[in-house]
């Protein structure tokens, strides 16, 4: 069964499994209650069991169905790179906040996102400028949100 | 004082417009709207200040749907319950139709809630007094069970819930107050901000999702319904739908008021349980939106029942307003109606006016605005949304660390959406996980780990049986539905 | 010789500049950091005080919420601000709570306390149909039946848990005599009280006042040193022979090495600001009790609270 969702399904299951395992082992270090019962560790351990069971079941079902390789062939690698670009830009904003302030960083992020979405330079620039003006007028001037 | 002067009316309209901006922009909440308004309110006549506050609260919660329709970013956790659906309706038919359903059923749901507030608050307050940690535990579990079964794939629903609840365990634990999973980082001591998660899982993930499906070439043909008149879609088509679904609307509103009046459970849980029940019954997108929106707003009125009759405010917003009542010499309790009848009647009238006029009014304005917005090419609109996500996230805590969370959770949201996982249920997991753990630990510590105590009170037993019936019934139903396709 | 003279000259110029700066403080807007979310009591106090303070100092005072980390982020932002008087904030009870201090590594020494603004004293609250008519009966009962009754109010090792621990300690009782059930805040604890899940709640007077006025609950005693004006019939623990007071507080503070002259100037400004009629009216409306102490008194108050809480924590070990 060729389905573009399958690679993502596998990946999310692996992440869920990893999160569950991590939660199980890290919660071993949590203190117990005065009576010696599991306190803070109880709930994460319950969740870990549920996550592991559900993700292992889904992984098993996913791998058993035919057409896995063809499903991976449907991945749009070029667009995954674009997504990487936007996320990288977002990762750098805390650093840009110091240099450019919030409005400048937001403008830059808008510009970059528009370009990665396939916009032309001029219209991307105009959108970024409009957003900066919008945020300034609505958030700062009108609503007096402290930014 | 009187709520029915020209000044009060203008204050209410201005409050409603102010509230709608806060509700619809990501990162700005109703509570923030009120607290920024308070330095101004102290210089106003109390009647005018109250009218404005009623206007703000009436619209700030409802306006969460505007962000959900336009950008798939719900403004409140409650509107996350039906964000997928309302956004889809907006895309496939028209935003005016989507917001019309939401605004009209919000207004009607709120009216039902107020009617119950007027008629039965003293009786219902007695029910609220029955709810200790055991009853809450079963009620929250009911919310989770209905959510898992409402997902198309149970395993995927379970994973979404599990991840959401695990994310919510970050920070101080409810039993001993030890920090968990914060890896020594003080930014994570108090857990991950709920609004940041909403912006990441819906806003950022939506932009990334569109980038992923981006193709060079001519843009897709515009929606043929785009040119329909906003008024006709908003009042006409949506109005007919709401009238046709009046029974569902009444049922959801009653459920919403009931859940809303339980202190602390509030409108989030109400919207989720109602819309998940509609999903369980395989309701259409419109029905899910309608039941979610009506019970969300009915629950807002419902939170006033314990506040006015017992003196327990359900949330921060109610607490602020209740505090203002107290200092005006208006004391909650059984005597409220005897002593301050005039005031209470005026208060209710103001609430009714706000729901009847303000919600459709600002909803209509929102729909008109979105219809214009959507004429902007997607590539530019999504870029602008990205900027709004950044500003909204920063507006909550002014903490650059939240931006890293935005990246991680946004990416996770994209993967889950692409893999067919119900992201909305993850948000519900984040809301309900801490409540479930809190009531579980509270009950266990209170009774020294005596599990039979969970079945020791009548209401608790009733709710436990509801859970059991739901699980057994849904498993049976799933088997029945699976059989014909799998002979 | 020349070098010595040069050094003296440099030091003199520096000192003069500092004095001049001190005298001309403030010359630009002041940031007032609030470590808790908008809408809470800290935020409301700061927002209503800021315009008044701005008028007195002649420079705008901008309120900034730095939330997250259970208050850790905002308190750290105040402590790590430049000690030039332009970054100040409102610190809360947490800075003297041992559990919080251990987890956040921020303690009372990281600040220059300027003025105590608000005290929210803790009350002992019971259901209207509780078996005790007054606090004496309640105390006698827990002494006779240790471990029989349950209390709540906040998370374990949270603020009101220390209120209970101090109360028990002064009675000569242990932690287990009145076990603590953790709750996420006062509203949840009060709901649990009303529904019969616990027997007694330790919450601030203001948090329970609506419930008490509605006739659903009763105050047995307040942890104050004198009677509380709004409820003159409720006795204080001190009157009952239990020498224990406890209140959550809001305190204006600056980073640690702030110049004493600047701190004094701020102290005077706060002293004036808390008497402003609009501010007083607002605080009354919001059920917050202004309890102003000046610079020296505030310092002593903070040191005393710090000692009292540390002693309690030692006993818990």
From TrEMBL, chain A:
InterPro entries: DUF1468
Keyword field: Membrane, Transmembrane, Transmembrane helix
Lineage summary: Bacteria, Thermotogati, Deinococcota, Deinococci, Thermales
Pfam families: TctB
DUF1468 domain residues: 12-147
Protein known as: DUF1468 domain-containing protein
Coiled coil as UniProt keyword: no
Transmembrane segments: 41-60, 72-94, 100-117, 124-143
From TrEMBL, chain B:
Pfam family, one: TctA
Residue span, DUF112 domain: 10-428
InterPro entries in alphabetical order: DUF112_TM
Signal peptide positions (record): none
Record's keyword annotation contains Transmembrane helix: yes
Membrane-crossing segments per the record: 12-42, 48-68, 96-119, 131-150, 157-176, 188-208, 304-326, 347-370, 376-396, 403-435, 455-477
Superkingdom of this protein's organism: Bacteria
Record's keyword terms, sorted: Membrane, Transmembrane, Transmembrane helix
Entry annotated with the keyword Transmembrane helix: yes
Protein name (database record): DUF112 domain-containing protein
Species whose genome carries this gene: Meiothermus taiwanensis WR-220
Organism lineage: Bacteria, Thermotogati, Deinococcota, Deinococci, Thermales
UniProtKB/TrEMBL annotation, chain C:
Coiled coil: none
Gene3D superfamilies found in the cross-reference section: Bordetella uptake gene, domain 1, Periplasmic binding protein-like II
Sequence similarity: Belongs to the UPF0065 (bug) family.
Name of the protein: Tripartite tricarboxylate transporter substrate binding protein
Organism: Meiothermus taiwanensis WR-220
């Amino acid at each position: 069964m060729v389905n573009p969702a399958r690679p993502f399904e596998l990946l999310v299951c692996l992440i869920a499994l990893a999160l569950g395992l991590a939660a199980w082992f890290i919660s071993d270090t949590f203190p117990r209650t005065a009576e010696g019962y599991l306190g803070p560790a109880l709930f994460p351990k319950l969740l870990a069991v549920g996550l592991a069971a559900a993700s292992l079941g889904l992984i098993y079902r996913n791998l058993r169905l035919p057409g896995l390789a063809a499903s991976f062939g449907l991945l749009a690698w070029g667009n995954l790179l674009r997504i990487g670009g936007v996320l990288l830009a977002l990762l750098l904003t805390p650093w840009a906040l110091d240099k450019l302030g919030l409005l400048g960083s937001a403008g830059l992020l808008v510009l970059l996102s528009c370009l990665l979405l396939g916009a032309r330079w001029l219209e991307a620039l105009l959108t970024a400028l409009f957003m900066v003006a919008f945020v300034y007028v609505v958030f700062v001037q009108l609503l007096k949100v402290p930014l | 004082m009187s709520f029915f002067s020209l000044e009060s009316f203008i204050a209410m309209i201005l409050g409603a417009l102010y509230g709608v901006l806060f509700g619809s922009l990501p990162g700005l909440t109703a509570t923030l709207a009120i607290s920024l308004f308070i330095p101004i309110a102290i210089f106003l006549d109390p009647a005018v200040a109250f009218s404005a506050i009623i206007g703000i609260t009436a619209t700030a919660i409802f306006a969460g749907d505007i962000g959900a329709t336009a950008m798939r970013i719900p403004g409140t956790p409650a509107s996350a319950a039906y964000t997928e659906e309302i956004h889809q309706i907006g895309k496939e038919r028209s935003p005016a139709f989507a917001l019309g359903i939401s605004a009209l059923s919000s207004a009607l749901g709120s009216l039902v809630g107020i009617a119950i507030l007027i008629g039965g608050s003293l009786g219902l307050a007695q029910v609220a007094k029955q709810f200790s940690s055991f009853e809450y535990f079963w009620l929250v579990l009911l919310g989770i069970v209905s959510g898992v079964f409402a997902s198309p794939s149970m395993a995927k629903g379970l994973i979404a819930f599990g991840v959401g609840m695990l994310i919510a365990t970050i920070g101080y634990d409810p039993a001993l107050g030890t920090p968990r999973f914060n890896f020594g980082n003080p930014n994570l001591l108090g857990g991950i901000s709920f609004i940041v998660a909403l912006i990441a899982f819906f806003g950022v993930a939506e932009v990334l999702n569109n980038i992923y499906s981006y193709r060079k070439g001519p843009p897709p043909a515009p929606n043929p319904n785009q040119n329909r008149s906003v008024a006709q879609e908003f009042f006409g088509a949506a109005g007919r739908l709401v009238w046709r679904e009046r029974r569902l609307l009444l049922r959801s509103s009653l459920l919403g008021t009931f859940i809303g009046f339980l202190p602390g459970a509030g409108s989030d849980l109400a919207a989720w349980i109602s819309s998940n029940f509609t999903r369980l019954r395989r309701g259409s997108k419109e029905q899910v939106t309608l039941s979610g929106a009506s019970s969300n707003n009915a629950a807002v009125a419902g939170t006033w029942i314990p506040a006015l009759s017992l003196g327990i405010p359900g949330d921060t917003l109610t607490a602020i307003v209740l505090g203002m009542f107290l200092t005006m010499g208006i004391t909650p309790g059984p005597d409220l109606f005897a002593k301050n009848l005039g005031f209470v009647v005026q208060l209710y009238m103001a609430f009714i006016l706000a729901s009847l006029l303000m919600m459709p009014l600002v909803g209509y304005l929102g729909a008109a605005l979105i219809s214009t917005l959507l004429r902007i090419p997607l590539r530019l609109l999504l870029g602008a949304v990205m900027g709004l996500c950044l500003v909204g996230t920063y507006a909550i805590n002014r903490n650059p660390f939240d931006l890293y969370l935005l990246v991680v959770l946004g990416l996770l949201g994209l993967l889950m959406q692409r893999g067919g996982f119900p992201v909305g249920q993850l948000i519900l997991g984040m809301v309900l996980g801490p409540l479930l753990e809190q009531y579980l630990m509270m009950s266990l510590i209170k009774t020294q780990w005596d599990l039979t105590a969970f079945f020791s009170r009548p209401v608790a037993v009733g709710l436990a049986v509801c859970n059991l019936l739901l699980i057994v019934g849904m498993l049976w139903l799933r088997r029945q539905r699976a059989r014909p396709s799998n002979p | 010789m020349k070098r010595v003279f040069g050094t003296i000259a440099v030091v003199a110029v520096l000192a003069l500049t500092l004095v001049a700066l001190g005298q001309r403080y403030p010359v630009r807007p002041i940031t007032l950091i609030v470590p808790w979310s908008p809408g809470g009591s800290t935020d409301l106090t700061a927002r209503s005080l800021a315009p008044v303070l701005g008028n007195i100092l002649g420079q705008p005072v901008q309120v900034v919420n730095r939330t997250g980390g259970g208050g850790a982020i905002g308190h750290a932002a105040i402590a790590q601000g430049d000690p030039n008087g332009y970054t100040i904030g409102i610190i809360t009870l947490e800075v003297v709570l041992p559990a919080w201090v251990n987890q956040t590594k921020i303690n009372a020494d990281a600040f220059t306390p300027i003025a105590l603004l608000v005290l929210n004293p803790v009350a002992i609250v019971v259901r209207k149909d509780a078996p005790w008519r007054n606090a004496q009966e309640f105390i006698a009962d827990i002494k006779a039946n240790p471990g029989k009754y349950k209390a709540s109010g906040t998370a374990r090792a949270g603020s009101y848990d220390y209120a209970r621990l101090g109360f028990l300690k002064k009675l000569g009782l242990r932690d287990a005599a009145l076990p603590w059930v953790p709750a996420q805040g006062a509203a949840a604890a009060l709901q649990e009280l009303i529904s019969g899940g616990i027997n007694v709640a330790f919450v601030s007077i203001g948090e329970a006042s609506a419930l008490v006025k509605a006739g659903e609950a009763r105050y047995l005693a307040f942890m104050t040193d004198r009677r509380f004006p709004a409820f003159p019939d409720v006795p204080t623990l001190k009157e009952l022979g239990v020498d224990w007071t406890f209140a959550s507080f809001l305190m204006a503070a600056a980073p640690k090495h702030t110049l004493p002259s600047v701190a004094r100037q701020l102290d005077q400004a706060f002293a004036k600001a808390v008497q402003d009629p609009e501010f007083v009216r607002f605080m009354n409306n919001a059920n917050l009790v202004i309890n102003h102490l000046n610079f020296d008194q505030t310092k002593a108050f903070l040191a005393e609270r710090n000692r009292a809480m540390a002693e309690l924590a030692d006993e818990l070990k």
